[in-house]
Amino acid sequence: MSPPPDPRDFDVLTTPEQIASLAHADRLAILGELVDAARTGSQVAERLGLPVPRAHYHLARLVKDGLVVEVGLESKRFVQERFYRAVARHHLVYPHHAGVDQETGNAVVRAFEEVFGAWRRRAMLDIDLGAIARRIAVDALRVRAGERVLIFGPPQVQKIADMLFVEIEALGGRPTLRPWSREYIFARLERMDDPRVRELPFMPDDETDALAGVVIVTSTQPSGAEPTPEQRKNLPHLLSAHTTWLRRLRELGVRQVELSVPVRGDVDKGELSVDEALALFWRALAAEPDLLERRVDAIVESLGSAQEIELRDSRGGQLRFAFDDRLLHRSIGRLSDEDLERGHVSEGFPAGSLLLVPLPGTANGSLHLAYTSFAGVHVRDVELRLEHGRIVGVEAPERAEFIRERLASAVGDASALAHVRFGVNPAGHALTGKASLDSILEGAVTLGFGSNESIGGSQSATLDLRFPSRDIEVRAGGAVLVPRPSDRPDSGD
What we know:
22 strands; 27% strand; alpha+beta; single chain; seven-stranded antiparallel β-sheet
């Protein structure tokens, strides 16, 4: 039997059946036995002094309610024994069952998320948020005394935003915090029926002109009710104002950092357990820029004088495109003088990738990609067909129409191939289900559609859609830049 996955730190009980399962002393005791090790029903019965039939009865109930999972079979004396493991170490009853409103309930769940996230970071990974904030402020933002720096993001990432504020202030900068909450967004959408509000810029020009740096901390933790149809109708206007603001920042040469912080709902559809995926994120965030730079330089050296890239998947799909060798964008966790001189003023965290900008209209072929996700919707096993650089066909076992609708409703050139990213970060080798994280992992190849203005391209769109995969071989000029997974050596410097 292969080693079973570790239980999650905590699980939210959302049904009365799950709550009833825990309202029994024997079942609670069985869960306790299955937290630290996988065991059979007979083993559990022996350890707890229970009759074997009773132990199997309670195990079946726990499995049915999703609190325990079967993790393997083992043959012993011509009998197959089933092994079980607890899904989580701790359980939180969703507050809505106690009459708490949805917004407050989500806030309680977010608080648990933060507590367990901080514990895992300290106890298991020893990741120092202050050190990460210093790296962002010094290496990427390159803050100087007197410079104005804007930090904004949703309330659930307030802790890292506060750390950034302190580090920027310590460097002599003048930081400002601006909330970007769901409540603010919905209220703005509600008022956009007023033409005066619809025409308002994302931020006044005089405030934007005074900025030297911007940190955008993002998280997809849900909160509050779903947007109304009227709010959804106005969303493109708000996104367009945001895109225009980002374009102005680039024109002014304002340095930008985007820190994408995952939550459990971002990484529960990948190849790892939720806690393994979150641990991978913290490892990726802590990767040293020097190591990432060496890995990116190796790919650039392999490119040589090639002007065309060929991507191949294991099912026979092929995609070719020409690229602009003047627009190679290295994401290594810091910005150099050369980057700033070339107009590369943005960096993302976690870092570790090389981005190529395809020449418009040159991408042709079809490719199978692992997944894409947007607005909380995860679409697996996507096949894209491109002609003259644009998506002309989307197929998937489920929810392909969702992708088509998103592309059709976006403002700008959302269906054009904007960039291709090669990941080099050695934090892990399995996809987590969060595209911004998976796209920087070693061996990953990601197709991006929508805007590429932040890396020097000319395409603009309000939709940023990414399709990562680890099943792609990349060739250029006869050289293999990214081998198939079966041909890849173990990770190293």
